[in-house]
């Protein structure tokens, strides 16, 4: 029974660190598009670049 209690205590102690690491995944990252395409904020994706 002591082993279960110890494992539970260790797991609960590590939970805040795991949740902080997951929070970093929500940061915005720079978007890059293929040559001839540009990022369009309205559609949230790459669209063909129109020149002229």
Can you offer a commentary on this structure?
This protein is an alpha+beta fold. The protein has one domain. It has one helix spanning 2-23, and strands at residues 37-40, 45-48. It has a two-stranded antiparallel sheet with strand order 1-2. Strand 1 and strand 2 form a beta hairpin. The chain is rod-shaped and about 75 Å long. The protein starts with a helix and ends with a strand. The mean pLDDT is 79.
Describe the secondary-structure layout.
Blueprint lengths: L1 H22 L13 E4 L4 E4 L4
Antiparallel strand pairs: 1-2
Q: pLDDT under 50 segments (min length 5)?
A: none
Number of domains: 1
Q: Tell me the strand percentage band.
A: 15-25%
Q: Based on DSSP secondary structure assignment, what is the total number of beta strands?
A: 2
Helix and strand composition category: alpha+beta
List keywords for this structure.
about 50 residues, alpha+beta, two-stranded antiparallel ribbon, rod-shaped
Summarize the model shown.
The longest helix has 22 residues. The model has no long low-confidence stretch (mean pLDDT 79).
